[in-house]
Structure to design on (224 residues):
């Protein structure tokens, strides 16, 4: 019995010494893949480092996906910037047009408001979207030409349009109407050198009147 106990004690001391790395014994690492001197098979490497490889591949996949998203975001930002620049150009052009109309409106208000400078001698009305003069309105031009021939002042012919349609279209329509009235006055003996023609689009329509029929008109003035 004593011999068995002694043998167990010796065996336990040997195992403990191996685990503690006694003299003359090489300590074996606890991690089977942690020794730089070990030679492993591909199967063992896959077993030891598969998690690392999978993590690297997943990180690369996420990085590539992030790069694609970043490239897409940059492209969208570039497209948005181009649209903003285009819109900015349109706004500046519109602001220039508005400023020009505002200048024209103020000049017209100043001239119409100054009774000593302008004397209205008549007006000619037009049908919707038309610049030809009806026969009923021709009689008004006859009366205006008589007044103008008996005066030495310049004749100012101003065309207007209603609020229906675009700004440029209505401005051109107003000019055609004014030119038609000016040509009829010239046919009735008014010197072309005395006639001045102006036109205003939809922006000043409400200065003429609230009714659209009143807005489609050419007004003729004697200018001091």
């Amino acid at each position: 019995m004593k011999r068995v106990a002694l043998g167990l004690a010796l065996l336990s001391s040997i195992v403990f010494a191996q685990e503690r790395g006694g003299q003359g014994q090489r300590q074996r690492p606890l991690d089977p893949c942690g020794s730089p001197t070990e030679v492993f098979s591909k199967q063992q490497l896959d077993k030891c480092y598969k998690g690392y490889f999978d993590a690297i591949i997943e990180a690369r996949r996420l990085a590539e996906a992030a790069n694609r998203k970043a490239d897409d975001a940059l492209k969208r930002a570039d497209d948005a910037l181009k649209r903003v620049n285009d819109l900015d150009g349109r706004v500046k052009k519109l602001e220039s047009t508005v400023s020009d109309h505002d200048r024209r409106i103020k000049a017209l208000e100043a001239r119409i408001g100054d009774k000593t400078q302008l004397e209205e001698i008549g007006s000619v009305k037009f049908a919707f979207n038309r610049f030809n003069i009806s026969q009923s309105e021709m009689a008004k031009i006859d009366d205006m030409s008589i007044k103008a021939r008996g005066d030495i002042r310049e004749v100012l012919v101003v065309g207007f349009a209603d609020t229906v349609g675009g700004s440029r279209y209505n401005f051109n329509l107003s000019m055609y109407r004014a030119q038609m009235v000016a040509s009829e006055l010239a046919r009735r003996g008014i010197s072309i050198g005395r006639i001045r023609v102006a036109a205003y689009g939809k922006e000043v329509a409400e200065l003429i009147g609230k009714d659209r029929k009143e807005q489609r008109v050419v007004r003729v003035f004697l200018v001091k």
